[in-house]
Amino acid sequence: MNGVSLRTLLIAALLAPVMLAVGTTGWVSYTYGQRAIRQLVSQLQLEVSDSISGQLVSYLGTPHDLNQLNVDALQAGLLNNQDPDALQGHFWRQMRVFDPAAYIQLGRADGFFVGVERNGDGTFNVEVTNEGRTGKGVFLADARGRQSGSALSFVDGYDPRLRPWFVAARDTGGPTWSPIYQFSSRESARLGITAVQPYNELAGSFAGVVGTDIALAQLSSFIDSPRLGARGVIYIIERDGKLVASSVMDPPFIVDADKNAHRVQATAAPDSYTRATATM
């Protein structure tokens, strides 16, 4: 048989199925191994996503919890909406405990306003309308959280009833979020969103609105913080495609020369990962 021995043929016949079996087993193992890796990655991604979502829900729930506490205190008579000093001290104490709050405020139906703002250096400002309701003065908070010294500035013509947060609560009639808007602030231009809730007089008529702000830059810092335990790029996008918060863009908006803040479409974000994902 052309010089091929019977022994060689027998060995070849025995090895062929063995090699075929080994090769098939290797291919199957590789295929299932790749599938298992993909499933593991997908599972890890879902777990990370669920963890981030859960922490965000908790973080964004705090402003609404504060509002409910304040409405309860007002309607129980424990907090007097006619006493600016009491309101200032109360909001200031809350902000020292609850980090997510950038600003806590109360606006009455008659145009009266009191708010406490957290500054970037850790100090607080107190803002309150003057007696004639022609605007609001901005003061540095003292050791009790009340206005101290002369006004740092005066915002002429400020009327809380015209602000997006007040309008959102009044029109909705219950707890809700305001649209994203530019804050009225002495600090650099800031965009944010306000959790709001209306409250009523004892007779049941509309009395005013309480609100708690979250700045978009502050939200971006939160999703970039180690406590989330996540690596990579994290961002939040509205349904219209505009960026709300980003772990790699601080702040998540653009400020022009006139100190006006402008939203950014995720597809036009400076970060290439955000742009690529938003266009998928």
Number of strands: 13
Percent strand equals 25-35%
Show unreliable segments: none
Number of helices: 5
The topology string of helices and strands comes to HHEEEEEHEEEEHEEEEH
Can you walk me through this structure?
- By secondary structure, the chain is an alpha+beta fold.
- Helices cover 39% and strands 26% of the residues.
- It is built from 5 helices and 13 strands.
- The protein has helices spanning 6-75, 84-97, 164-172, 216-223, 272-278, and strands at residues 103-108, 113-118, 124-129, 135-141, 147-156, 176-177, 181-182, 191-200, 206-215, 235-237, 243-246, 253-255, 261-263.
- The strands form 3 sheets. Strands 1, 2, 3, 4, 5, 6, 7, 8 and 9 form a 9-stranded antiparallel β-sheet that branches.
- It is elongated and about 115 Å long.
- The N and C termini lie far apart (64 Å).
- The mean pLDDT is 82.
Kindly list the characteristics that best describe this protein.
280 residues, alpha+beta, nine-stranded antiparallel β-sheet, two-stranded antiparallel sheet
SSE layout and pairing:
Elements: H1 6-75, H2 84-97, E1 103-108, E2 113-118, E3 124-129, E4 135-141, E5 147-156, H3 164-172, E6 176-177, E7 181-182, E8 191-200, E9 206-215, H4 216-223, E10 235-237, E11 243-246, E12 253-255, E13 261-263, H5 272-278
Antiparallel strand pairs: 1-2, 1-9, 2-3, 3-4, 4-5, 6-8, 7-8, 8-9, 10-11, 12-13
